[in-house]
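Quick one from the shared queue. A colleague (R.T.) flagged Selection and upkeep of intraepithelial T-cells protein 2-like as missing a structural entry in our internal table.

Convert sequence to structure tokens.
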Amino acid sequence: MASTMHSIKIPFFILWSVYKVSLPVRIKVSSTRSVSVTVGSDVVLPCRLIPEMNAENMKICWFKTKFQPCVHFYSDGKDDYSAQVLEFANRTELLKENITRGSFPLKIRNVTAEDSGEYYCNIDSNNHHGLAIVQLDVTAVGSLPYISSVNADTVYCESCDWLPKPYLIWADNEGNNIIPLMEKVHTNKENLYCISSIISITAAVNITCTVSNALNQSKQSSGHNKEKRLPAAPRDTCSRIIIISASVMICCVCLFLLLKKHPKYPKIPLGMYPNTAHSEKERKYSN
């Protein structure tokens, strides 16, 4: 009986070993949760197989929108750009240095704001299938805030080229926040954010304009608001009459004093006036 059981176990274990070898190895496609990069830089999105195995003969598709045209496609041992998304043309490269060890990260050059989002690393072969997801966060630190005076009591601040969406804070020289009259946020042609704000100032004060984003990236500018000049009070009709009358009186007094100090004109002999001399001769002849 024992010999019979032993004879049965030996073929069973042989068959089980052969069956295990023939089973496809269960693999996992792995990546990091997220990667951050600044606009205009290059970025590498990791992807690898666990456990390590040669991926040279697998189909590898990196795509951004799930099950849509590939950002980058690798098949039959070479890159295939025929179905690549146009936005990524000439900007992607599958790094193959360690592909035989199951590592095939994707490199994206000259990253733009539109490249932000989830990326899917999908592998496919006769025996293996898998998918991993990595989040690409594209960031940009904007320009130094520009402060200018709109008029005597209104100040304007603006900063552009931010990602993610920024926020703006006004403060006086004591650190007190100033509530803005207006604030506006919009995107430019590069899909980066611009922010602008206006405040009203009632007295001379040093002010700061700070623009920040959710990643604790910020830039700050300071400015001095000039003291407001009080507007000239309008004069009514009565006050104008008084001022004009006083001016006329002053002019008259000055003229009187000038004439009083001036010497009298000397008397001129009668003969020096031609008309008078002629009349005197006529009077003699008539006598």
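Helices lie at 2-22, 237-261, 274-286.
Residues 8-23, 227-236, 276-287 have pLDDT under 50 and may be disordered.
Added to the table.
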